[in-house]
Specification:
- By secondary structure, the chain is α+β, with helices and mostly antiparallel strands.
- It has one domain.
- 22% of the residues lie in helices and 32% in strands.
- The chain has a 9-stranded antiparallel sheet with strand order 2-5-6-7-1-8-11-10-9, with helices on one face.
- A hairpin with a 6-residue loop joins strand 10 and strand 11.
- It is globular and about 60 Å long.
């Protein structure tokens, strides 16, 4: 899919991490040897291995007891306790997260390496290749990759100049009489289709942090677009991620100020 011509872009975006991921039905043939065999698929480019606690299944639901439903995590008692596995590139800028029902790819800024953000399209191409390879592996094992949820997260670390108030950076606090020193907030919104049907949920997390390595005050703004793709295939997941990228970028531009855009080198 092509990038929309009117989608804003920045020469120096404050992006610290980009995460693309899918959640799928655990294959019925899964066993403890899968993790090693999956790593073998990716080891040439992701040779560093680690184990992490698993992520619980998570589903964006709508029309529940609340006005719009909720984001639901499910913990099945008695399920086999399988881990989450990290496969990293040598420079640690790219990370695969795999468990029996998930595949994620993280791009991470590493200040010591001064790595530049390679842009969504390149990272998505890498992720799509990983996803297709995993799908082929499952088929070879007599199973099928059935995608339940997809998600994309942009995690920004926004540095501030000394003495410049937060309202000069964020449009949503422009009218506030408060001279805010810090932020710590979580909020969500439901994304609807042209026919007014809920199709995804956008989640926002804002936290005051100290940047690394500058040791300057900053705000960490994470925006996640998550939901069920139109179908269960890798192509449906791809389309969902592209839509999520567009919605996140446009909302990010609405939440941040023209002064901030100028500093980050907005092109359009």
């Amino acid at each position: 899919m092509k990038r929309p011509k009117d989608l804003p872009e920045f020469d120096k975006p404050p992006l610290d991490e980009l995460v693309l991921g899918v959640q799928f039905t655990p294959p019925f043939t899964y066993n403890d040897t899968y993790a090693q065999r999956v790593w073998d698929l990716f080891k040439a480019d992701f040779p560093v291995y680690a184990e992490q606690p698993r992520l619980l299944p998570s589903f964006e639901t709508f029309g529940g007891s609340g006005a719009e439903g909720l984001s639901l995590q499910i913990n099945l008692q008695g399920q086999v306790n399988r881990n989450r596995y990290w496969f990293s590139s040598k420079d640690e800028t790219h990370l695969i997260q795999f468990q029996d029902d998930r595949l994620h790819l993280n791009w991470r800024r590493r200040p010591a390496r001064e790595n530049q953000y390679p842009r969504f399209d390149r990272i998505q191409t890498i992720f799509q290749g990983l996803l297709e390879k995993l799908s082929s592996f499952f088929e070879g094992e007599g199973s099928r990759l059935i995608i339940q949820q997809s998600e994309v997260s942009y995690i920004n670390v926004i540095l501030f100049d000394d003495g410049v108030p937060l309202r000069d950076w964020f449009t949503f606090i422009n009218q506030s009489p408060l001279k805010l020193e810090s932020l710590n907030a979580i909020f969500t919104e439901v994304v609807r289709s042209e026919t007014n049907q809920p199709i995804a949920r956008m989640s926002y997390e804002l936290n005051s942090v100290v940047s690394v390595p500058e040791r300057k005050p900053a705000v960490r703004l994470a925006i996640t677009y998550r939901g069920k793709p139109a179908g269960e295939t890798t192509i449906s997941a791809r389309d969902f991620l592209f839509t999520g990228r567009e919605r996140i970028v446009r909302r990010f531009c609405e939440l941040t100020s023209a002064k901030a855009h100028e500093r980050w080198g907005r092109k359009n």
